[in-house]
UniProtKB/TrEMBL annotation:
The keyword Coiled coil applies. It comes from the Eukaryota. Residues 14-27 have a biased composition (Polar residues). Residues 1-27 are annotated as: Disordered. This is L1 transposable element RRM domain-containing protein.
Length: 303
């Protein structure tokens, strides 16, 4: 009991370091406590955690349902619009056969169809944006861990808890409390390089995930002698958009020019103390031509 008291006193007097997260638990139980009281307190903490998890799950279900309802409504509107367009096209075709020489009516018909098509494209774009936002919100709680050697009957949750505890300088028990689940996925990278499959980790809090990303830059960790690479997860639609700008980003990396990806599409480039927002392929191509020209001129010998 004296050792237990000394540990509690040591926890109280340990100063917190500025800029770090103090994950030390407060002593909420009396110093002299029976095993039964301790078990009751643990049960209460477990029930609170279950309640928080259920509340979080319910909120996510409600969000998914709302977005699903919006997507269904938009799809129904598009279906109805297409049905109406087909009926109108049939009617106009009959009129067109009867009045072949009426150019004015034909032009109006074409204009109406174009307007409808533009509206459909706009609705489809909104639908894709909502789907991408839903995927982004789900992935904001995830990280991808690479170079974790696969083993038979491995305990991924325990491995990740140990690694994240080392990064954040907390106990493995505290790290484990913030992990919802961990599982492996097969990717093109693992197939192509014949390496261990990546591990996807779902955390309970987004801030906890962000802290791991920030501190991993200054406190890298290793597993079985290999450096563990920790990456953000992005929706497939976002990755597809970024591929269109690879020709530019490769050139920027080559010349060590700073840039960052925009949330929806494109990149923001810092070049010669100026910022350039390149959110379309045309803008990216124009900037690429400008950059190549200036680099070529700067490499020419001065006479």
């Amino acid at each position: 009991m004296a050792a237990y008291k000394n540990k509690q006193e040591e926890k109280r007097t340990t100063p917190s370091i500025p800029g770090t997260i103090n994950m030390t638990r407060r002593n909420s139980l009396p110093e002299e406590v029976t095993l039964r009281d301790l078990m009751r307190e643990i049960q209460k903490i477990s029930e609170k955690q279950d309640t928080y998890q259920k509340s979080s799950d319910e909120q996510m279900k409600i969000l998914r349902k709302e977005l699903s309802d919006q997507l269904t409504t938009t799809k129904n509107e598009i279906t109805n619009e297409i049905g109406e367009m087909k009926k109108e096209m049939d009617t106009l075709k009959q009129e067109f056969q009867e009045i072949k020489r009426d150019k004015i009516k034909t032009e109006k018909f074409q204009g109406k169809i174009q307007i409808r098509m533009d509206n459909l494209e706009a609705k489809n774009s909104k639908l894709e944006t909502k789907q991408e936002l839903l995927e982004q919100r789900e992935l904001e709680f995830q990280l991808k861990f690479r170079n974790i050697q696969e083993e038979a009957r491995e305990n991924l949750r325990q491995i990740i808890a140990k690694l994240t505890a080392e990064i954040l300088q907390i106990t493995e028990e505290e790290a484990d409390e913030n992990i919802d689940r961990a599982y492996r996925i097969t990717t093109n990278y693992s197939k192509r390089n014949k390496v261990a499959r990546d591990v996807i980790v779902q955390f309970g809090r987004r801030r906890y995930r962000d802290d791991i990303l920030k501190r991993n830059n200054s406190t890298p960790v290793s597993f079985k002698g290999k450096k563990v690479v920790i990456l953000k997860e992005f929706p497939m639609s976002t990755l597809m958009k970024r591929r269109k700008y690879m020709f530019l980003t490769e050139e920027l990396k080559k010349h060590q020019i700073r840039f960052r990806w925009e949330r929806t599409e494109g990149v923001m480039v810092t070049y010669k103390d100026e910022k350039y927002w390149l959110t379309t392929e045309e803008k990216a191509k124009d900037f690429y031509k400008k950059l190549k020209k200036e680099m070529a001129e700067s490499s020419e010998p001065k006479g």
